[in-house]
Amino acid sequence: MIGRIDHVGIAVASIEEARRFWESLGLVIDHVEEVPQEGVRVAMLVVGESRIELLESTRPDSPIATFLARRGPGIHHLCLASDDVRADDARLRAAGTELLRPEPTRGAGGCWIQFVHPKSAGGVLVELSQDGEERA
After folding, report:
1. Which residues pair with 127 in a beta bridge?
2. Could you name the CATH architecture of 2-130?
3. 62, pLDDT greater than 90
4. 79, 93 Cβ separation under 8 angstroms
5. CA 16 – CA 120 distance, rounded (Å)
6. Whether the Cβ atoms of residue 1 and residue 92 lie closer than 8 Å to each other
7. Residue 42 and residue 63: Cα distance in Å, rounded?
8. Predicted confidence band of residue 133 (pLDDT cuts 50, 70, 90)
9. CB 104 within 8 A of CB 86
10. Of the candidates 6, 32, 8, which has an alpha carbon nearest to the alpha carbon of residue 19?
């Protein structure tokens, strides 16, 4: 079940450059980590109960590199917190929703994640995320 907006993902050319704006608003980067299987480095900024995720490509063939080449920096996805990504995945498949992965995979912070294709979500890339064991 979906409980809240977890974060908004923003594709950036450089986390170091992008962070200046967000920090000028008084936000603080909680942590930075690399997710090698996705070819991305992420920086999380806490905003109340939600977060902003800055996404920087670490290789030219990553989804973020492709996004930046096509559209430039900007909002990449909306992430919704799930208490059971596998159940949400099954429910969406049963409803005919197009998902990007055959099954949920691990993402930043050890979370279980799945993506809904923008064609099925009114043009918005939607990520579903369930906290993993590694995340506090």
Report:
1. 79, 115
2. Roll (3.10)
3. yes
4. no
5. 33
6. no
7. 13
8. low
9. yes
10. 32
Cα dihedral sign for 21, 9, 82, 1?
positive
Specify the pTM. 0.92
- Residue 87: phi and psi, rounded to 5, are -70, -40
Q: 23: number of CA atoms within 13 Å, CB side?
A: 10
Residues 79 and 128 sit within 8 Å (Cβ to Cβ)? yes
Average pLDDT over residues 105-125: 95
Which tokens in the block code for residue 1? Answer: 């079940």
How many angstroms separate the CA atoms of 78 and 76, rounded?
Answer: 7
Evaluated on CA atoms 82, 85, 90, 96, the torsion sign reads positive
Contacts for 35 with CB less than 8 Å, ≥ 6 apart: 41, 42, 107, 108
> Is the per-residue pLDDT at 57 higher than 60?
yes
